[in-house]
Specification:
Shape: globular
Order of helices and strands: EEEEEHHEEE
Structural class: mainly beta
Helix content: under 10%
Strand content: 25-35%
Distance between the termini: 44 Å
Number of helices: 2
Largest sheet: 8 strands, antiparallel
Number of strands: 8
Length: 177
DNA sequence: CGAAGGATTTTCT
DNA sequence: GAAAATCCTTCGT
């Protein structure tokens, strides 16, 4: 469970991104201003801006100097539903409040300026009393190239949970012709 | 329910 | 210039 700004989610879906050898990772081609947090010590929040409009959050994992993180893809809002709903005006159902990385970011009030924030301060992570009984594993969502193939099945989710985002395979995008 | 297009910024070629 | 760890609206089945 992750506590954010006046709201908390039970995480139901995550993806792993690991180091230099992972072609799907932002850190694959080295350190940039955006992904610098991933190279730091674990237990911090890596927040990035993508697609011109969305914020996504990772929890940095692995030792300092080795980039790695877990992308928070989706979850169920279990506390502060009103605050989350106020921020997610377009959401029609409770399950939609944090169903997707960008939505989860908005629901918890995560901002770009929260990048690098240490867990335990602004945000607090509570591990479940016992491991989830069952989860499934498969290729990552929205990742193009080799990183999205079956060779890197690093997306994990709780099967049957309504807050898990629907799997979309990489949709190549074309610009206005 | 699925497919398709637009919005919009950081980063790399 | 093009693609990207996405979301929302609209149209078709």
């Amino acid at each position: 469970m992750l506590h954010g700004r006046d709201a908390a989610v039970r995480l139901t879906e995550v993806e792993a991104y690991r180091g230099f050898a992972d072609p799907g990772s932002h850190a694959y081609r080295g350190k940039t201003r955006r992904n610098a947090t991933m190279f730091g010590p674990p237990g911090h929040l890596y927040v990035y801006f993508t697609y011109g409009m969305h914020v996504c959050a990772n929890i940095v994992c692995g030792p300092e100097g080795e980039p790695g993180g877990v992308l928070l893809r989706a979850g169920e809002i279990v506390e502060g539903r009103e605050a989350a709903r106020a921020r997610r005006v377009t959401s029609r159902s409770d399950a939609d409040l944090a169903r997707g990385p960008g939505r989860l970011g908005v629901a918890l009030g995560i901002q770009l300026s929260d990048d690098g924030s240490r867990l335990g301060e602004l945000y607090r992570l509570e591990l479940a009393p016992h491991p989830v009984p069952r989860f499934e594993q498969g290729p990552r969502t929205g990742v193009s190239g080799p990183g999205g193939s079956d060779e890197y099945p690093w997306r994990f989710w709780i099967p049957g949970d309504p807050t898990v985002s629907p799997y979309k395979r990489n949709t190549p995008k074309r610009r206005t012709p």
